[in-house]
Amino acid sequence: MKHKYLILLLAGTVLLLATGVRGQHEDIPYQPVTNICQTCLCLSSQDSGHRTHFDLDCSVRSFEHILARWPEEFGSQAMAAGASSEIVASFSGNRIRLLQQLPATNASLTLSCRHCGLQELQTPLFMDVPNVEALYLSWNELSDDALVPDLFRGPFRNTRYEPIGLRDLDLSHNRIARLDRRLFEHTPHLTKLNLAYNKLAVLDEATTAAVASVATLERMDLSHNGLMSLPAGLFPKLQSLRVLDVSGNEFTVVPASLQQLANSLVQLNLAANAFSSFKENSFQGLVSLKRLNISGMPSLRIVEWGALKLSALEQLDCSRNSKLERLEMADLLGSRNLSQLDLSRNALTTLALNVSSNASSAAPWPRLRRLNIVDNPWYCSCDLFKTLELTGLAHIERETDGTEARCETPYLLAGSVLSNLTAERICKMVIPKKYREVEEEPPRFLRRRYIILTAIIASVVLVIGLVIGFVVACVRRRLKGSDYGVQPIRYTSVRGSNLSQFSQLQPASVASKFSSVHAGGSSGATTGAANA
Ligand SMILES: *[C@@H]1O[C@H](CO)[C@@H](O)[C@H](O)[C@H]1NC(C)=O
Ligand SMILES: *[C@@H]1O[C@H](CO)[C@@H](O)[C@H](O)[C@H]1NC(C)=O
Ligand SMILES: *[C@@H]1O[C@H](CO)[C@@H](O)[C@H](O)[C@H]1NC(C)=O
Ligand SMILES: *[C@@H]1O[C@H](CO)[C@@H](O)[C@H](O)[C@H]1NC(C)=O
Ligand SMILES: *[C@@H]1O[C@H](CO)[C@@H](O)[C@H](O)[C@H]1NC(C)=O
Ligand SMILES: *[C@@H]1O[C@H](CO)[C@@H](O)[C@H](O)[C@H]1NC(C)=O
To answer: Which domain of life is it from (predicted)?
Structure first.
C-alpha cells in the first residue's frame, strides 16, 4: 500500500514540475512538431571529433511560433548528451511576435530569429537550454521592456539559478534605448555583443553598468546609435575587449575612456563619425591597436602631427574623407608592421616623409602589401614621388574597375597616371611657372573665353535687334501720330477727309502723310500738340 502512495506522490510531483517548467505561457500554442522535417530542413552530421551537428532550418515558413520539441529525427539521446552535440536552428523570416521558451536540450544551441517581427521574449527563455551558445535576434522590434534579466536565467539548482553558456548575442537593428543594469547577470560567458543600429544615443547609468559588468566581453558593436560619447565607467572591467565598433555615431572627439582599453584593444572602427580633426593625443596609449578605421567622415580635414603614432598598427583605413587635406605620413614610420594602407578618396595633395637620405635605403614598411591612393587631387611633386618610391610604388593598387591614381597638378602632368611616373623623372623636370598653351585640348580658360565671346556677340546682336525694333516702333508711331494729327483738319477740308477715308482702306498710309501736307501749315502745329 505504502508503495502505491509513494508512486502516486512521485507521479504528482513530476506532473507539477512538468507544468511548472512550461511556465506562464503554457496556453500559447507552439508550432506542431509531427513530420516537421517535411516542412523544415533537417540535417544531421558527425564531425571527426565525434561531435554531432543538427541543423534545423525553418526560415521563411510563415510560422507564428517556434517548435515545442526538437524533431524526433534528432534523437532524444543526442539532446541529452550535453556539449558533445550541437544544434543550429533558424526561424528567421517568420512572423513570430513572441519568442517562447525554447524546447529542452543539453546540446549546445545556436538560434536565430532575424526579421521575425519579434516584440516580446518569454521569460525565462533558456531554462531548459543551459548550453545555449549564440542567439541572433537582429532586425526585430525589440524594445527596452523585452529585455529583462530573468530572460537569461538558467535551470534552478540548489538555491539559485544556474548561469547559461551564452557567448554570442546579436540584438542589432532593434529599438533598444537602454538596458537593465542586471541584464547580463546570468550570462558570465558572453564574449560578443552586438547592439548596432539601436537607439542607445546616451548610455545612461544603468546601461553603462549592464555592459560594464560583462568582464568576458571581447567584441562589442555599438555602431549607428547616435552616440556622442562613451562614459568613463564603461571600460574599467572590460579588460578582454579586443574589437570595438563605434562607427556611424556622432563622435567629435575620440572618447578618453578608450585609453582604459590600452592593453587589449586590437581593432577600432571610428568610421562615419563627426570628427573634424584628430589631435596629437587622440589615440594616446593604444599600444595594441592593429586595425584602425577612420574612413567616411565628411567633416574630417586634418590628421594632426603625432595622431597616428601607433606602434602596433597593421591596417589603416583612412579613405572617403572628402575634406581631408593633411595627414602626416611620418607618424606611421613608427608602425613597422604596417601592411595595408588605404588613403583613397580624400582631398590629399601630397604625402611627406622626412627620411634622411642615408636611411632611405631601408624600406620603412617591409610588410606593406596594399597601398591605395586613388581619387586624391595629387600635386605630383618630387617630394610626393620620393615618399611613394620609398613606400613602394609597386604596392600601389588600382581599383577593381581599373581606376588609378592620377596627378591633378601641376598642369604639365595633369591626368598622368602616378604609377607611370618615377621620382627620377619628376625631380629632374623643370616645372615652369607659366607654360605655353597646349594645342591638344582646349584648356579651360580658353573655353571660358569662348563662352564670354559668345555672350558678348549674343548681347550685341540683341542690342542691335532692340535698337532696330525701337526705331521701327518709333517710326510707326510717328506715322500713326501724324495720322491722328490730321483728324481735326478732316472737318475743315472736304478733300482731306476724303483722303483720310481713303487712307483707312490703305495699308501703312503714305497717303495720310500727303493729307497732312495738303492740309496746310497750321496742321503741323496741331500735330505737334497732339503728339505732346
Ligand atoms: C540535461 O542534463 C541534466 C543533468 O546533467 C539532466 O538532468 C537533464 O535531464 C538533461 N536534459 C535533457 C533535456 O536531457
Ligand atoms: C571601415 O568602416 C567602414 C564603415 O563601417 C567600412 O565600410 C569599411 O569596410 C571599413 N574598412 C575596413 C578596412 O574594414
Ligand atoms: C610585428 O609583428 C611581429 C610578428 O607578427 C611581432 O612579433 C612584433 O611584435 C610586431 N611589432 C610590433 C611593433 O607590434
Ligand atoms: C622636414 O625637414 C625639413 C628640413 O630638412 C624641415 O624644414 C621640415 O619642417 C620637416 N618636415 C616635417 C614634416 O618634419
Ligand atoms: C645617417 O644619418 C644619421 C642622422 O640621421 C647620422 O647620425 C649618421 O651618421 C648617418 N649615417 C651615414 C652612414 O651617413
Ligand atoms: C602608362 O605607360 C604605359 C607604358 O609606358 C602606356 O602604355 C600607358 O598608356 C600609360 N598610361 C597612361 C594612362 O598614360
So the answer is: Eukaryota
